[in-house]
Amino acid sequence: MAKVVIDGKELEFPDGTLLFDACKEARGEPLPHFCYHPDLPIAGVCRLCQVEIEGMPKLTIACNTHVRDGMVVHTRTEKVIKAHKQILELHLINHPVDCPICDQAGECGLQDQYMNYGLYETNVCKDDKVTNPKAVVIGPEVILDKDRCVLCSRCVRFCRTVTKTGEMGIFNRGDKAEIGTAPGVELNNPYSVNVVDICPVGALTSRDFRFKKRVWMLKSVDSICPGCATGCNIRLDFEADSIFRIKPRYNEDVNGRWMCDSGRKEYKSVAAEDRLKVPTANGSEVDWPTLFNEIREFGKPGLVITSPHNSLEEQVLGQFIASEICGGNISSGLSDSFKGNADDMLVDADKTPNRTGAGLAGAKEYSAAELIEKIKAVDAPILIHSNDFDGNSEISTTLDAKTVIYLGTHENEISKQAAIVAPVSCWAEKDGSFVNKHNRVQLFKRAVARPVAASEDWRLLADLMRLWGLSDVPESMPAVRRLVSVRVSELSNFDMNAIAINGEIPGAAEPDDGGEG
């Protein structure tokens, strides 16, 4: 261990700790920086994190220095602040300062440092500036504005060490140096938009988000990506009832600071044209009282079919209905459904967020032939909660001869033939939890409102339980989560109402947030 004095505060750190990280703990905020990133190799190119170390003749960059016992460090002296100002001035020499039209405005490292140090006037004439191309399309997801780049090399290091695809590089030298891709090469790896997240200025922008919304107008909520069984922790950025982007949220035990490009597009399904928006009975739009009267006439269900896309809470309510009314006759759909490609980073072959949770709730998967036999054996209505069976025509034909009560979010073959269609909330329109492939229970939260005539899933399931004469029906989400602990043996000692926001694994200690993110 090394005892270090930073700005008059004595602290102790393990040997090998970066001085940058030590200063962050001592100051309560990181040093000014562009090139440093906790998940990338050290570059030491921006020179902005310089500090004064007693006994050293010159200022030292903290990102490439390790603490040593007895070190005395100053981060706010006049000498250090002067150096920071001079370095910022060098970065701004060729920067266009086009903040009013830049997507990064409001969350830009250069903008923040400029305002922190009060550099309002430049000493360099505009005519002396080197200009570089703007709006260069370097891949299917990313656009590069070269004139904004501060050559921090984060994007280059990401492509070399994280994705190991190496598409990006720094070309030329001196004031002619620029970021780019080699001729004929595109930035097209499955994680390319992460370079936009880590860009400290507005040089790299997302083609999907570009010019859509000023970031200070957005609100954010923590959520979980529904795109696959990995369960990446994400942040939904939205305004009013529209989601504008998805960004990764740090969780060392799940996705670190990254997420795939495909997962960033999951928000588009929330406002898709084929959303179910109004209840229907026998093909006609009805109000909810009429819908419940129709369901009462059909009688109690004989089979419940859920989906690995449903939340854990919804799975348990489906299990409750099946066990009390259907003799435990419940399925979570087809085995091996929603499968696709995987990689060795984050993308899993299972394209559902809660197959593990469905299994914990006792909903079994069946082959197409097995599920068809179960459907044929039921004379009573079949309650289907958000499952499209991968478009299996045989199952669709079999269901056509049955009374189907369908709870779903989007139009599909099942919704078109169901006697009852009840529109419910998408994942971004409700609270819930998913269990990822590693048995980690993770919360997701509501960002936007559901369609006006749609129902929140757990409330609709609870209303159906009351309609069919069940008792002990939960009246709130906390009550539903208590029911999860009662009905899922693996979670019997697990408080579902006290899950850490970054997720928990039953029986495991709460994971450490890990710092910056």
Keywords:
517 residues, Ubiquitin-like (UB roll), eight-stranded mixed beta sheet, elongated, 23 strands, disordered C terminus, Alpha-Beta Plaits
Topology:
Elements: E1 2-6, E2 9-13, H1 19-27, E3 50-53, E4 60-61, E5 72-74, H2 78-92, H3 109-117, E6 136-137, E7 142-144, H4 154-161, E8 168-171, E9 178-181, H5 194-198, E10 204-206, E11 219-224, E12 233-239, E13 242-248, H6 261-264, E14 280-281, E15 284-285, H7 288-298, E16 303-305, H8 312-325, E17 330-334, H9 355-360, E18 364-366, H10 368-376, E19 382-385, H11 393-400, E20 404-408, H12 413-417, E21 420-423, E22 432-435, E23 441-444, H13 457-467, H14 477-487
Parallel strand pairs: 1-5, 16-17, 16-19, 17-18, 19-20, 20-21
Antiparallel strand pairs: 1-2, 3-4, 3-5, 6-7, 7-10, 8-9, 11-12, 12-13, 14-15, 14-21, 22-23
Residue stretches low in confidence (pLDDT < 50, at least 5 long) are 509-517
Query: What structural class do helix, strand and pairing data support?
Result: alpha/beta
State the share of residues found in helices, binned by percent: 10-25%
Report the CATH C-level class of the largest domain.
Answer: Alpha Beta
User: How far apart are the termini?
Assistant: 26 Å
Radius of gyration: 27 Å
CATH fold-level name of the largest domain: Rossmann fold
Widest sheet, order of strands: 15-14-21-20-19-16-17-18
CATH architecture of the largest domain: 3-Layer(aba) Sandwich
By DSSP, the count of extended strands is: 23
Please indicate the percent range of residues in DSSP E strands (runs of 2 or more): 15-25%
Give the helix tally. 14
Return the domain count.
3
CA-based shape: elongated
Largest sheet: 8 strands, mixed
